[in-house]
Amino acid sequence: MTTTLQINLAPTDLPHLIHILPHQIRQLGGQVDEILLTLDLHQSRGRFGAAWKERLPGFLDFVQQQSAAHSKVRTHEVDYSRKAVRTISEQFFGGESIPPKDWNGGPFYAYFSGFSNAHHDYVFHIDSDMMFGGGSQTWIGEARSLMEARPEVMVCNPHPGPPTPDRRLRSQTLTPEPYTSVAFRADIINSRVAFFDRRRLISKLTPLPLLQPRIFRQWQARLEGNFPYMLPEDILSFSVRRAGFLRIDFLGEQPGMWSIHPPYRNGIFYERLPLLIQNIEQGEVPDGQLGHHDMNDSMVDWSSVRKLTWRRKLGHFQLIYRNTMRRKG
Q: How far is CA 115 from CA 123, 147, 191, 201, 257, in A?
């Protein structure tokens, strides 16, 4: 199979990690040769670094337990030394120095460090909060066969959300793709989940450009002490479109595989997470979730956290406006 399941982890992930990582290993571990846990111990600013120090000991203990319990699991701590950064920069960005974090304080360098340190060229990358339904134990093999047969495909993803009876998506618009199962095409990359051939990515897309976001985001990055660079998925998406490649999302042979992502965090989510995972694995999801790639209110009441998110965004606008006016004055 020569495939690596590569998962990005950080201490702030611990409350969901203790439930979701075992689920990911159950759903995907039997289809790969290696499970690479990429440990990012470089603390981010803001929400990406929440409770970092408090959770670090428990995080390291839990990762060690998973490594001891599963023979395929290998851990790799992201190396931020100057030599390591230079090596990864040369591999993916033509020598341009990679920032540790993106404009929002989220991981940047850690993604490419994980890609580089996989033992195998076929990499199924997922973030620590991704969950998978359907239960197919052949999906990764199908994705590999699809990519070997179609050189214009850069990335394959599981079906986005539990499928609908009419084979349509509800939360996004993608172009249907002729295939042996329900499938869609896109020209953007999502860093939450992506199955790819590292050799193809490097030979066809690199050197990747270090792109900056819109001026508003650059201002926000500087005010919050972050680096004014676009997210890795935006840079990869730009490069995929520029080179004319595709992403194919497909369900696969029965029972198929689909992914789902929690867009927020709140107390209800953490309390219900074990049951949510059980329902996802057993395919017991409400009709309101069908066709939606993000977990919606039919599974978790997100109303309280949505209000907090908008307040945080409003605070960012106000801070940038005040600093802009001060500079003009």
A: 7, 18, 11, 10, 23
- Residues 107-132 pLDDT 10s: 999 999 999 999 999 999 999 999 99
| Backbone angles phi and psi of 81, in degrees to 5 | -65, 155
Backbone angles phi, psi at 202, to 5 degrees: -70, -40
Q: Is the pTM of this model over 0.90?
A: yes
Cis amide prior to 207 (ω within 30 degrees): yes
- ∠ Cα 8 185 292 (to 5°): 65
Cα angle: 141, vertex 142, 147; to 5 degrees: 100
The 10s digit of each residue's pLDDT in 130-179 is 999 999 999 999 999 999 999 999 999 999 999 999 999 999 999 999 99
Partnered with residue 175 across adjacent β-strands are 185
